[in-house]
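Checklist before submission:
- one chain only
- standard amino acids only
- sequence pasted in full

Submission:
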Amino acid sequence: MTAAAAVTGNPSLAIWAVPVSALAGSATEEAVAFVKGLWAAEGVQRFAEAVEEDSGSTAPELLEREGVGRKGRHLLGEAVEASSTTSDDWKVRVLARAFIVGAKDHTKIDEMRLLVKLVDDLEGVDARCLAAAVRCKEVFLTRELLEFDRQLEAVAAILLSKLVRLGFLDVVDERHAILNLTPYEQEELHDARQTAGRAEPRVPTGFTLSPVGRATADLLASIGQVEHHSNTIPNPPQKPA
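Returned file contents:
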């Protein structure tokens, strides 16, 4: 982890290379430091393996062969640091691929550094939701997103809320969401609004990709790391007669 500290420029990583027996404090503090060290070392090791599997070369070999400059070394440091704090295999693959792309094409280093920052709060399942959103029309409802990845059904509400909170999706005005209702649902809503005392059916929340969400999806697609799962879709839900 001393090497990781040097690469990332994050001195806090260096402490994880210190033997637990050398750390002052209680047994609990020693245990926490030991677990942190294992966690970070595993993430960095998985990143190194992903780079070698994808490119056929180690990260140092790529740096040397491709003549990577200061910006490229920063990209590597940021990717390594992000890898040390995640348990998600998809994210590690994205980080490894971003480094490889930047190392081989220096004109894309800035884009890849941006991608590393954009995926900081994303996990593989979030990327699946984002990929399904990309395939929807401009304004979509949850049920329309699920037509592209039915396996997200149990967690779709949570994922959509998270992507909104992170700025990858925007919630649209109710007037736009209504346009996505089936003719039957639109008629029900119209009748309810025209009948005094009749409760209106709830209009489902409508979503649209934000500019950040679109840019992130495009960057992920450019390195071949968009999580599409169209082959898992059963028959799409049928509209009421």
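Reviewer check: Residues 2-120 form one domain.
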